[in-house]
TrEMBL record:
Its EC number is 2.1.1.-. GO terms for molecular function: protein methyltransferase activity. It comes from the Bacteria. GO terms for cellular component: cytoplasm; ribosome. Coiled coil: none annotated. InterPro entries: Ribosomal_L11_MeTrfase_PrmA (IPR050078), Ribosomal_PrmA_MeTrfase (IPR004498), SAM-dependent_MTases_sf (IPR029063). It catalyses: L-lysyl-[protein] + 3 S-adenosyl-L-methionine = N(6),N(6),N(6)-trimethyl-L-lysyl-[protein] + 3 S-adenosyl-L-homocysteine + 3 H(+). Methylates ribosomal protein L11. This is Ribosomal protein L11 methyltransferase. It is found in: Cytoplasm.
Amino acid sequence: MSAEAGVWKVTLACTRAEAEALPFAEDAFADLDQPPTLIADEPDPHAPDDWRLHAYFAEEPEPEWLARLAAMVPSRGSQPLVERLPDSDWVTLSQAGLTPVSAGRFHVATAAHAHERRAGQIGLVIEAGLAFGTGQHATTHGCLAAIDRLGHANRFTDILDLGTGTGVLAMAAAKRWPRARVTASDIDPVSVAVTRDNVRANALRLGIGEGRIEVFTAVGMADARLVRRGPYDLIAANILAAPLIALAGPVSAVLARGGHLVLAGLLDCQATRVTAAYAARGLRRVATSGGEWPTLVLKRP
């Protein structure tokens, strides 16, 4: 371990596909006491496949850690740029560089960019360690857009965000339907704590009942509270294809008649299998959006 502490930034060139896959590569540093914070950005909107990976370490990165980063984004074959940042609030600095995301009527940004929201947009402020927690990832973007579209013709009262992450989908639903009862769960206690902080930062109310968001740790649908709070007329699950398929039975069981299900976290090549798992439980797919990372909207007749 390096003796020189501080904050170290490592930058590598990557493709958009590699950047979008970063949330699924977090285990690469699971053995470290202080894993790096990973952020991806698109420096030039006119070059949509030219992205950058930024990794922030709490100490000087070992050569082996740099090799791990390079293995995560191999296509460009670039050498990592390593720099020590001056002593300052590096989290604020790193998040200040994240560009806002607009999806439907939602405007998702860190506090540094919250003022850029246009009239008529629904603002969400997310201070997350990963850029994709702020809506930058295609799956989160697709879910937000789907939730906004569903709001044109539906009024939901009982909503579940399964695998909430930073809480962005739960908060989007709470702002779209202010009187709804929203439940948000995640397998990761850290994500639950982050979600609670984000709920407070967005002037939304925690707790059980109308106009509130209840947030707790749960493994899949195994927690009895998730069943008791059902049935839900809207469920959003932005996780991965395998757990989406595995949870098809219990998730479908708590979806109300006429309810909608928004699924994401899957690749285009996995969409048929995921859809089939829910079709076997009586749901039908009513909309699909996105390309490589599609968002599926299903409905119980």
